[in-house]
Amino acid sequence: MRDTNRQFRLAKRPEGKPDRETFELAETDVPEPGPGEALVRTRYLSVDPYMRDRMSAGESYADPWDVGDPLRGGAVGEVVDSSGAEFEGGDIVVGNLEWADYTTAPGTELTAVDPDLAPISTALGVLGMPGRTAYFGVREVAEPKPGDTFVVTGAAGAVGSVAGQIAKLSGARVVGFAGSDEKVSFLEDDLGFDAGINYKATDDYRAALDEAAPDGVDAYFDNVGGPITDAVFTKLNVDARVAVCGQISLYNATERPTGPRKLPGLISTRARVEGFLVRDFAPRFGQATKRLGEWVASGEIEYRETITEGLENAPDAFLGLFEGENIGKQLVKVSDPDE
Amino acid sequence: MRDTNRQFRLAKRPEGKPDRETFELAETDVPEPGPGEALVRTRYLSVDPYMRDRMSAGESYADPWDVGDPLRGGAVGEVVDSSGAEFEGGDIVVGNLEWADYTTAPGTELTAVDPDLAPISTALGVLGMPGRTAYFGVREVAEPKPGDTFVVTGAAGAVGSVAGQIAKLSGARVVGFAGSDEKVSFLEDDLGFDAGINYKATDDYRAALDEAAPDGVDAYFDNVGGPITDAVFTKLNVDARVAVCGQISLYNATERPTGPRKLPGLISTRARVEGFLVRDFAPRFGQATKRLGEWVASGEIEYRETITEGLENAPDAFLGLFEGENIGKQLVKVSDPDE
Questions:
Q1: B153 lies in the same domain as B239
Q2: What b-and-e string marks burial along A212-227, b requiring 16 or more CB atoms within 10 Å of the CB?
Q3: B20 in helix, strand or coil?
Q4: For A79, how many CA atoms within 13 A lie in the half-sphere containing its CB?
């Protein structure tokens, strides 16, 4: 156990792409839990694209951080001290914690993780928020049917890799866009996608889709936006559904992004384009996690993690998301159980 | 009765905006009805924005015309001769007819119009395709609820004017964009809209909406597209619905139109954007026409027509649609009953 605490804070608001200057690592005392709070030692930290939004002052579904605020995100940790919380020392919990070695949090905002069910890191990936985002986005918004062609962007990422596999379980032909030949192999060989497209190897996404999705696109799960999405929209079939989950290619834009107008193409296709937030499905999180757990246990859903070692490297792990450096869920390993 | 026939044909495909050169008026014999066909004398001809699409060779939901083909569209006429059709001379019918004095058509493709119910021209407007488009687009796609703010573009046109009134009957606050102060008065004073915005009097559509739709936009019925739609999208509330009916501002574009990317804004709002075609609701046309007829009879829905006299002026009536010259349904009067 460390006798001091390290904590990342927002050093300044990024203009466009964040960099190391965006982050400041402060040394503090280990915090004391108040009544009803637990002191949690961070084991794994999740870095997610939506956090980019919280770094800006503008309107967003995620409240902006102020400069000097500690950064926060999904994290799995071990309860070290629980004054009035219903946890015991040694319990593994998941919650919205600081990017720090230690955080205090009200026991009501922590959820127990069963370490016998699956590796505890999965509570931040396939059995956590990204897995549930894929689950509800595919089943409730994109709605692939047997025989449909389903396309997903960011396909090798934490959400996309699960989304494609759930669509595959629905009987759809599944096509994924990813950013390297290694990722395409992961999609095709490990996850059972019907086709992967390395978007860094071509500029002609439309031609790539002509080959990978010869019957057009019935359901589209978009994590990326921009020119790939423009190409997918030109291939939408009648009654197509588009689930807008993320637009990572646009999050660092310094000017208001522009692109081809898509509304004219929606008329003849009668396509439906719908944004969604996983938190709207909170009453059904238990159901989703249970189902995902069964699929993982049976091997019907495979998952992969990219783990960066050390809290001090969390900014690099976060910045790497925008360079597509991760395969599967990007995590930061902050501590080991025996430390 | 004329002893020759005049017929408009597609003289050449327009590049961008069509003009008089797009049309050729040919003189032909009055056609002879074949078995099962009726000879119909045109009384009113409908000109509609979707016809622009049929003049181009590209993909569309409407099959393209070939150069030299007669132009066709919704028309009301009087049966002059019915070889084997189930109509009698003097019957008033509506169907998809040529832009001509006379057309032959299979009886199965004609629908009887009851001249005692309403003026026969309404079979092309409030009680015809435009009215039904408004009916299904509002009730099945945009779905305004009591207390919602509903915005419609092309609000003084054949579809928009009915759409706004149906939304008003649903208990929504109704705001319409139209292209002149006269049209805004029509919306506010004659149709009972809560606010009209003359989009030709301002470039700052967002500021106009701040005033006319202070609580944001819950349902949007879009006939126009382009910069007005861009502004409306910035005002969408959580769970907003967008019904994409038409995009008239883009139909004459010679380059692929571009604009601000809208998908990022759909995530936090969870908004749904959906294109629709009225023909998908064909099994329910009877129900819609009956309901619209009741609303017109009770005065709950008002309608207006802009009538251009003379078949020879049909091209001007069509071209005027893109200049916003009409209030309500734009028709061409081709013949009188006593001629």
A1: yes
A2: bbeebbbbbbbbbbbe
A3: helix
A4: 27
Instruction: Dump pLDDT digits (tens) for B249-279.
Output: 998 888 889 999 999 999 999 999 999 999 9
β-bridge partners, B309: B333
The model's pLDDT over A140-181, given as tens digits with 9 standing for 90+, comes to: 999 999 999 999 999 999 999 999 999 999 999 999 999 999
Nearest residue, CB atoms, A263 vs list B247, B277, B280? B247
A246 is a domain residue: yes
> Which pLDDT band holds residue B110 (cuts at 50, 70, 90)?
very high
Residues A316-335 pLDDT 10s: 999 999 998 899 999 999 99
Whether residue A169 is found in the same domain as residue A229: yes
- CATH code of the domain containing B28: 3.90.180.10
**Residue A282 pLDDT:** 95
Distances, alpha carbon A191 to alpha carbons A123, A125, A153, in Å? 20, 16, 15
CA–CA gap between residue B30 and residue A197 (Å, rounded): 59
Rounded to 5 degrees, φ, ψ at A230 are -55, -45
Q: Is A235 a residue whose pLDDT tops 70?
A: yes
Whether A197 and A90 share a structural domain: no
Q: How far apart are CA A19 and CA A33, in angstroms?
A: 32
B56 in reach of chain A (CB within 8 A): no
Say if CB A93 and CB A79 are below 8 A apart. Answer: yes
- Please name which of B169, B103, B172, B135 lies closest in space to residue B287, comparing C-alpha atoms: B135
Work out whether strand A102-106 and strand A37-46 pair parallel, antiparallel, or are unpaired: antiparallel
Instruction: Work out how many domains chain B is built from and give that number.
Output: 2
For residue B66, what are its two tokens?
């070939």
* pLDDT for residue B232 is more than 70: yes
B285 located within any domain: no
Burial class (CB in 10 A: 0-12, 13-18, 19+), A291: middle
- Looking at the fold, whether A251 and A313 belong to one and the same domain comes out as no
Do A51 and A162 fall within a single domain?
A: no
Average pLDDT of the residues in A130-139: 98
pLDDT, position A223? 97
DSSP sequence for B137-151: IIIIII---TT-EEE
Query: Does residue A252 fall inside a structural domain?
Result: yes
Asked if the C-beta of A54 comes within 8 angstroms of chain B's C-beta atoms, the answer is no
Distance CA A288, CA A281 (A): 9
For residues A98 and A198, state if they share a domain: no
pTM of the predicted protein model: 0.93
Which of B267, B268, B274 is the best residue to mutate to test the A interface, defined by the most A CB atoms within 10 Å of its own CB? B267
Distance in Å, alpha carbon of A302 to nearest chain B alpha carbon:
27
b or e along A236-257 (b: 16 or more beta carbons within 10 Å of the residue's beta carbon)?
bbeebbbbbbbbbbbbebeeeb
Q: Using CA atoms, how far apart are residues B170 and B241, in angstroms rounded to an integer?
A: 15
Report residue A83 as tokens.
């004054």
Q: Are B216 and B226 in contact (CB under 8 A)?
A: no
> Are the Cβ atoms of A258 and B260 closer than 8 angstroms?
yes
Rounded to the nearest 5°, which phi and psi values hold at A299? 80, 5
Q: Which domain holds residue B324?
A: 5-124+304-333
Report the residue of A56, A221, A233, A263 to disrupt the B interface, i.e. the one with the largest count of B CBs within 10 Å.
A263
